[in-house]
């Protein structure tokens, strides 16, 4: 049944022709892709605002289902995981976005729901100034918050420098692609991508045989912004993909940061514009971002883990902390997004509460982003 639901979700992405918001609304309204299939002839009764084009497309699934079955076989042969919003490993932060992808294809080993995720984006014409900023920032971030997952688009310029510095300093890093996992664009980054599979991964919403066409890059940018807690714009001209990603992050009510640049510097115009318009917070080093995000205790926790956290015998718990511990007591080990949903606590606040419970020695984070109650 689970595999069949995945096939229906894959088929739905093709039928909807990437009409993200309507397809996702329909999916959430119906509860599953298979339910949409079962009601394909009376969808308008359920979602009156559904476009005539989509209504017509939803009545015919045969070609899309055949393509989905072929893609499932391809994924199995190439160790690709297929994730839908119903899967615990699906990026939970994306679930908060109105245009989240119904299906993601993932190769790699990083936890897509780890506690700290930062998108680093910017121009493809990264200057020596930008490269120096990335080098120093990632080094400092790795020292202060060593579990941070770095997300970018594997493109030339800022993207590839962010990925490579993350690899250099031991941080996991995810490349979000604008094409299927049967190819790599640009091919020049193939060796970096190979390393990322061992220390992060590659993620896309596109099936194999999908080329890196221009519209796909903007679609890719919303995933970069949506799966991260915050977006950092390093360098950008007055127009550019990095600027688009930052503004998408703003639309998701995510934090946006930018490095300032010299007045008149072509590839700092976008950053300075965001800062001037209060669409991004100015930063000059990693410590400022860490403090703004409330991540400053992460390094202390890492140190405590290395030496073993001493559990308090009678820890004082807030009402919300008690709610989480009771949930784990009654249900056993759970991932972050399930804890957030079942406790009714917003996901970012749940993250902070889980951190405090770790510090108190009440819970432990297991492999795969699962939280375990220490009894």
In short:
The chain is an alpha/beta fold. The chain has helices at residues 2-15, 20-30, 33-38, 43-46, 52-58, 62-77, 128-144, 158-168, 190-198, 214-226, 241-251, 269-276, 286-293, 298-307, 319-331, 336-343, 347-359, and strands at 81-83, 104-108, 117-121, 149-152, 173-176, 200-204, 230-233, 255-258, 281-282, 334-335, 363-366, 370-373. Strand 3, helix 7 and strand 4 form a beta-alpha-beta unit.
Supply database-style keywords:
375 residues, alpha/beta, nine-stranded mixed beta sheet, three-stranded antiparallel beta sheet, 17 helices, 12% strand
Tell how many strands the DSSP assignment holds: 12
Give the H and E element order. HHHHHHEEEHEHEHEHEHEHEHHHEHHEE
Give the overall pLDDT as a whole number.
90
The rounded Rg comes to 21 Å
SSE blueprint and pairings:
Elements: H1 2-15, H2 20-30, H3 33-38, H4 43-46, H5 52-58, H6 62-77, E1 81-83, E2 104-108, E3 117-121, H7 128-144, E4 149-152, H8 158-168, E5 173-176, H9 190-198, E6 200-204, H10 214-226, E7 230-233, H11 241-251, E8 255-258, H12 269-276, E9 281-282, H13 286-293, H14 298-307, H15 319-331, E10 334-335, H16 336-343, H17 347-359, E11 363-366, E12 370-373
Parallel strand pairs: 3-4, 3-7, 4-5, 5-6, 7-8, 8-9
Antiparallel strand pairs: 1-2, 2-6, 10-12, 11-12
Helix pairs in contact: 1-6, 7-8, 10-11
